[in-house]
Amino acid sequence: MNGRVTRFDQRLLRLLAHRRCVQVSLLGLAAMICSVSADTVYIHDMLYVPLRAKPESEANAVTKSLASGTALELLVRAENSDFVMVRYRDSNGESTEGYIHQQYLTKTPVAAARFEAMNEENQALKDQVRQLESDYATLDQALASQAQQYTEASDALTLAQVETERMRKLSQSASALDADRTRLEQQNALLVEEITDLRSLESKKQAEIQQQWYLIGVGSALGMALIGFLLGRRIYHRRYSGGWS
Q1: Same domain, 6 and 59
Q2: Do residues 88 and 72 touch, judged by C-beta distance below 8 A?
């Protein structure tokens, strides 16, 4: 259980660290969105340029007017001319080659395109914020679940410790009872031996007493017989002076 509680502690610490990272990320993204959205201005940049068949201002147009921000592939710069040869690909993927004056070209996207890119980036950041908020809510739920599991594990650990202490006391009591039982068995064995010895001694004493009484009885009988003989003899001598001497 201690190992289990330690694993919960580690998971909670990781969840708290992740939660802190999410909070920092949300704050950073919010600041970025504010910086993008603040002081937004719009540029009126409606310019349409034709793509011509020759490097001349009066040459026929091979395409309709191209709007500002249209991407072109630079092919060849015309000699002694301000026109360059480019390739244009429409939305269907079909390409058209022609000439366009260099004054209409720039290496950087026009303001509208940059603004659109910024809007897309802003939207992407908002999507990230929503995703982080969702992750944050999920993380809160996971953290609450982990806290609940931690509480349940702590309660289970407390119950296990109480039960372990109770079992330890019971084990000690059982050990003490077993020791008392062993001691009593040893005492009983000694008492049985003493009783057996006493019975044997009593048997011997009774045999000796019986033998002594037998001898006393025999001696008494002999004494009585002797006394009777002597008394009879004395009486006889008194009656008959010529009897035994």
Answers
A1: no
A2: yes
- Provide the domain limits for residue 150: 2-39+116-162
Number of domains forming the structure of the chain? 2
The pTM of the full predicted model, rounded to 2 decimals, is 0.33
Q: Which of 13-27, 82-96, 108-122, 217-231 has the lowest mean pLDDT?
A: 13-27
pLDDT tens-place string over residues 162-209: 988 888 888 888 888 888 888 888 888 888 888 888 888 888 888 888
Measured on CA atoms in the order 181, 187, 188, 189, is the torsion positive or negative?
A: positive
What pLDDT is recorded for position 41?
Answer: 40
DSSP string, the chain: -HHHHHHHHHHHHHHHHHHHHHHHHHHHHHHHHHHHHTT--------EEPPBSSSSTTSPBSSSPEETT---EEEEEPTTSSEEEEEEE-TTS-EEEEEEEGGG--SS--HHHHHHHHHHHHHHHHHHHHHHHHHHHHHHHHHHHHHHHHHHHHHHHHHHHHHHHHHHHHHHHHHHHHHHHHHHHHHHHHHHHHHHHHHHHHHHHHHHHHHHHHHHHHHHHHHHHHHHHHHHHHHHHHH-TTS--
In a domain, 21, yes or no: yes
